[in-house]
Amino acid sequence: MNALAPTLALRFFPRTAAWLRDLGLILAGTLFTALFAQVSIPLPFTPVPFTGQTFAVLLTGATLGSRRSLASMSLYLLLGGLGLPFFAGGRSGLPYLSGPTFGYLCGFVIATWLVGRLTERGWERSLQTSLLPFLAGMAVIYLCGAGWLTLLLDVQKALLLGVLPFIAGDIIKIALAGVVLPAAWKFMTPGNYSATFANTANTDPKGLSRKSKG
Question: Is the pTM of this model over 0.85?
Fold first, then answer.
C-alpha cells in the first residue's frame, strides 16, 4: 500500500516526475520536523527538553512511508549537524548532535522508518489499528533515548530524566496522530473529496482541447 502523502502528491501532481515528487516529499518531511522542533520547552530537572519533534517524526513516517521518511529524517540530522538551526529550540551542530539527546535523534530515524513500514500495511487507516504504529515508533524513540542516557548516567536516572517526564505529553501526541490519519484517509475515499480533485489525475488536456474546439 502507498502512504498518504505520496497518494496525495500523485493525485494533485500526476504529470510530475516520480523522483521529483519524492524529493519534494522528503524535503517537506525534513522541514516539517525542523519546524516542530522549534516548539521546545526546557525542563529544569533534565537535559532533555519537551518538544514537538516526536509528533512530527511519527506523522512523517505515517504519511511518507518507510523509505521516504527514512531519507527525510536522515537529511534532517545531516543538515542540523552541519549547522542549520533544525534541532530543538534552533540548536545545531555536531556538539549538540552528540549530546544527551543523541539517542533520541537516532531513534527518530529508526522510528520513522518503522512507523512508515507499518502504515504501508494500512494500519493507520482505521481507528482500531491506527495507534499501533505510533506506539511502536514511540517505544523505539524511548529505547534509543534512554539507552544513550544510560551510557552517560545510569538506568535509574535515564528513566527518571528521559522517559517518565514525557509519557503524558507523548500519549497526547500519539492520540492526536491516531485520530488525524484515519480521518485523512476517510476524506481520501471516493465520494468524500471534491469531484474536481478526484478527476485531476485522469484529466486529458488533449481531449479537453478537442472538446473545446468542437
Answer: no
